[in-house]
Amino acid sequence: MKKIIVLYDAEKADTFESDIKPLLGDAACKFLAFEGQSLDALSEGQKVLLWLGDAALKSLLLIAVRQAWQIGVIPHPDMNRALKLFRGLGTAEEAIAKILSDPDPVTMDLMVCNQQCVLGSVMIGNPEVMMPAALMDENWWCKIKNFFVLLLSFRQTSLVSYQMTTEKEAQVNTAALSMALVYRPGNSEFTKRTIGETEKDEATLNAVIFSPRSIVESLHFLWTKFLPKQVKTQERLPSYLGHIKTASLTVKSSSGLLNISIDGEPFQAEALNAKIEADALQTIGLVLPEKQPLSEQKEAVRVSNLPKGQVVKELVNRPLSWIHHSDPEEVKETFIAIHENAQSSESYKVLMVLSALLATVGLFANATPVIIGAMILAPLMSPIISLSMGVLRQNIELISTSGKTLLVGIGLAMVFGTVLTWLIPLTMITPEIQARLSPNLLDLGVAIFSGVAAAYASARSEVAKSLAGVAIAVALVPPLGVAAIGIGWWDWPIFSGAFLLFLTNLVGIILAAAATFLMMGFSPFHLAKRGLLIASVSVVLVSIPLVLAFNGLVEKQRITTVLQQLVFENIQVKDIRVISNEDYIIAVKLMANRILQTDDIVAVKSKMEKELGHAILLEAQLVVVQ
Q: Could you give all domains of the chain from N- to C-terminal order, each with its CATH number?
């Protein structure tokens, strides 16, 4: 029976003699202190135990494959990456017990890159980005430090063009900031957090490509993948990530030499050739994950979101911008839809008339469900979003077309709403009408958030169904209906208040939608700044009366709060309502167990004036409670 060869770390010979060697007991072993010497004298098929650190293991594993050694691995103080490769080693005592009691070897795959054995991962790209990204599993303070290191490096780095070829000759030409290649995704914290771990081993390598088009996307990566303690991976990759699963991968770059790091050791090369040597290594004493049969393994190339074509040329060798400007080809469908929505069609006009009539009836009937139906039916949101895109990109044709369509819709709503008002013999201001006569900053806030939602839904077809909810939230048609009622009644306060609400919604949506499209990369900032400036000025001008109205609302709330805290002897003050905060007209309900006299009302009024520090006009409803 051949003796077991035990290769141990010569630099830690004392530790081996005291802690490891006694664990081997009476096993027939030959001990060799390894200092990098040649091991050609060892016969093929030899059983070899290794008590070595990562660096020595890397140099021996390819020899073990070539010599068909049966290797057993014993945990070593300098063994870090190898512990993830050789799973379930346990303690030295446990590992040795498994090796000695397990006579049959089990084969495992080995990853090789540029003729070097890979224990953990291969990184390609800017070293300033790769090094902090490789430290994702460090403590919180280390993460914070590396977060700011990455943040600063993103602003100073640029993407590099790469040409990749898989085992099955699939070609991928893209631009990326960095790449990580691993055998098991769990072997690297970077790949584990981006594509998740696998339950079974496959004879394939996994390449994760990090290709942010902007600093905003880089920040999203840091916030969602780098900082959290635990990350839940999703089936769909973010737009800045790609994933290739293949048996071999060749990577080249037209930008020059590749910056490569294998298990933390950096070097440069003209090309990277990585592959998985299937069932290359014979191991003993290891409990390996279940192996996926070769017949069931499939190559996967998930790079549809990565830069391609002309976009690669625009991104390469340029510092990352804060916001990515989408290539027209990437958002071609969105532009086509927006141009179509800017057109005035027969169906648009019919829906506009019907929604205006429905809203007017609902306002007179004080029927909220009817008014909501009119909001959903109204097609006004489409030309407004098209107008915001035209303003953003300074597209005169789109501005003109969508503007005319918008004016046609407004005109139809006003005309038919006014005619219907003349036909309805009612002149009572319902609560639904009253609610649209005094717009304030809160209404502008609703318009801005609705504009953001509408722009996002327009650019993302998968959430376009949410546009109905946006239409309900911003309520464009009901203010037009109230304005039409104001014209029909020839009542300027009603018309002006309602039309101001409509203008608030309109300019708020245009500004917010334009800003959202800018953030989503639909226009470069130098082109968008003029349109954004015009929209911002319009919002500021509209905001002047809104600020005054909002201040009035705040003042009414203050007066109501002060009066609610007052206590009167034998009199209860209920239903306090501030009719006018400027003239201090206050309506209240006074409740008592007797008929209140004029002196009682004067006493209540005097106490209120003293508390408010201002003379008031009191409208009191007297209620006797027995």
A: 4-102 (3.40.50), 121-280+289-317 (2.60.200.40), 328-554 (no CATH), 566-624 (no CATH)
